[in-house]
């Protein structure tokens, strides 16, 4: 038992080391490399979970088998044999994988390891075997954690505000918004038919109040452009457009991927005082006194994004094919034209709604994280401390970002590293000419030349969801503590280039502070995102599945929004 079980503690790092090298000859094989990276990430996280479990019962990261046996016998005498059996089974699985990868105990490849032998390694990574290995390790790790530790994250947040918000979730509305946002992204991409040397940027406002309403709302999108007289090194100019979905009679729905059916959300009771406070919450604006429009009736029907409150005939309108030219033309005839989703199965059209009030002028777009801890930095540098965000503002942004991940993850709007590259906020020209942050953050996207996108695999979808949700967890920590994660790392801390592996130790170490600063509901949501602690098989923990969207809303969106409600 000692020889095999010892491989659990020393074998996984050797396999991770080998996977880094096994991926190198297959740079050209994108899907295979993705599979290796997925396996490597799973093994790293399972290894860290095992180390955390052992550390919580007083053992070092790599205890000997004798130390394990003594600890189990002393602290858990009634189940010590069962605990040793779990360790032995984990060791056997690692031993089998090491043999498949031709790794010896010293981490060396055997003599005469020729190039053609990589094919043997490649063929050893069948999807079925890989998924079974990871599932077994996760199952045994969870058994150990449940037996040796107190549960860290409850299965359900029982807070009254959270429970009330859960009842308000509408799965059909969520599906409709996701489809509409994907169509809008395709329509914008199709609209940039210009021959400009530089790519264009678009930024969609993350107005999360609109996500809760059964009324159709136009999407606020800012488009970058440059004028002929503009110096080449000067920042881009921006123009806001309000785009409203049209042609309800031709809009088609996309078949939905379903896991076991989700119980429909119950209608809220008008007599509930808590629900009344949540209704009042829609009027809260931390930088503006203008409240968003409310539904006319609490019995409003399920959202149909095809129905527009500003519907008009577009039979005489013209499709916008050169968006660059049209936005740079002030008050041009294009105001009555439309963008079209090139996907014929959708056939959605977005008309420009010019009946909206004139918005504040955008001076520039900056990374959202640049406003964190800005007061201390700007005071030291003599800058603009008035750009700093209050705790109430940061929590509102956290709610907005959580909603946006629910509706945009898996679409063209968000990639895996969205929190670093795409989470932005506008600086607007406020009263007196002072720059102020926009009310809501935005998701920016760079529309470059035409690209060919292949069909994504289940592995890729799962990995993208996991990475995007981890990025949300990191951002929730940063918004709570008001400091970028880079500033939280200890001096000299370094690691692999993969952000998931670099940031995970730091993010995990800050969870206790998040609980202290923002409370249990916000802390539970953040910890779930950091640890990807969601139920279901890996293949189903993807935003393409309605059941996972429901689970993500219940476990993340509702608790974060409920935390913000406490500050209103």
Automatic annotation (TrEMBL):
Residues 254-275 are annotated as: Disordered. Residues 266-275 have a biased composition (Low complexity). Residues 175-561 form the DUF7580 domain. It comes from the Eukaryota. InterPro entries: DUF7580. This is DUF7580 domain-containing protein.
């Amino acid at each position: 038992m000692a020889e095999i079980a010892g491989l659990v503690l020393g074998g996984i790092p050797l396999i991770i080391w080998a996977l880094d090298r096994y991926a190198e000859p297959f740079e050209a094989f994108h899907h295979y490399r993705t599979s290796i990276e997925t396996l490597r990430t799973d093994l790293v996280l399972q290894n860290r979970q095992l180390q955390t479990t052992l550390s919580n019962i007083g053992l070092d990261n790599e205890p000997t088998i004798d130390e394990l046996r003594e600890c189990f016998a002393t602290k858990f005498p009634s189940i010590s044999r069962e605990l040793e059996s779990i360790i032995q089974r984990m060791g056997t699985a690692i031993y089998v994988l090491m043999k498949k990868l031709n790794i010896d105990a010293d981490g060396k490849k055997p003599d005469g390891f020729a190039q053609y032998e990589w094919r043997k390694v490649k063929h050893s990574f069948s999807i079925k075997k890989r998924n079974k290995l990871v599932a077994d390790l996760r199952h045994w790790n969870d058994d150990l954690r449940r037996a040796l530790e107190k549960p860290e994250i409850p299965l359900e947040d029982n807070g009254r505000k959270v429970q009330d918000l859960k009842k308000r979730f509408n799965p059909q509305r969520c599906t409709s918004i996701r489809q509409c946002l994907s169509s809008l992204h395709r329509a914008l991409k199709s609209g940039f038919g210009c021959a400009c040397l530089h790519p264009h940027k678009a930024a969609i406002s993350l107005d999360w109040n609109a996500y809760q309403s059964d009324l159709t709302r136009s999407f606020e999108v800012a488009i970058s452009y440059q004028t002929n007289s503009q110096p080449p090194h000067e920042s881009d100019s921006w123009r806001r457009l309000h785009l409203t979905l049209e042609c309800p009679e031709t809009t088609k729905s996309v078949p939905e991927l379903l896991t076991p059916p989700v119980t429909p959300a119950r209608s809220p009771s008008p007599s509930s005082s808590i629900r009344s406070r949540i209704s009042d919450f829609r009027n809260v604006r931390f930088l503006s006194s203008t409240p968003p429009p409310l539904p006319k009736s609490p019995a409003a029907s399920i959202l149909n994004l095809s129905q527009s409150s500003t519907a008009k005939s577009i039979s005489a309108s013209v499709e916008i094919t050169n968006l660059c030219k049209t936005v740079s033309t002030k008050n041009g005839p294009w105001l009555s034209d439309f963008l079209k989703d090139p996907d014929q199965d959708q056939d959605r059209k977005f008309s420009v709604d010019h009946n909206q009030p004139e918005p504040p002028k955008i001076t520039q777009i900056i990374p959202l994280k640049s406003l964190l801890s800005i007061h201390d930095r700007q005071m030291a540098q003599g800058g603009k401390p008035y750009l700093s965000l209050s705790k109430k503002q940061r929590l509102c942004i956290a709610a907005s970002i959580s909603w946006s991940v629910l509706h945009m993850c898996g679409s063209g709007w968000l990639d895996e590293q969205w929190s670093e590259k795409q989470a932005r906020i506008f600086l607007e020209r406020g009263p007196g000419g002072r720059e102020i942050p926009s009310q809501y953050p935005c998701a920016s996207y760079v529309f470059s030349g035409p690209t060919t996108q292949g069909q994504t695999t289940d592995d890729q979808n799962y990995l993208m969801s996991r990475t995007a949700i981890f990025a949300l967890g990191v951002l929730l920590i940063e918004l709570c503590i008001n400091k970028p994660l880079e500033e939280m790392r200890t001096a000299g801390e370094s690691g692999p280039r993969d952000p998931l592996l670099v940031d995970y130790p730091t993010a995990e170490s800050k969870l206790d502070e998040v609980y202290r600063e923002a409370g249990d509901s916000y802390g539970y949501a953040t910890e779930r995102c950091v640890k990807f602690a969601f139920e279901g098989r890996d293949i189903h923990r993807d935003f393409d599945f309605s059941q996972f969207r429901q689970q993500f809303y219940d476990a993340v969106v509702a608790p974060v929004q409920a935390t913000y409600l406490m500050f209103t």
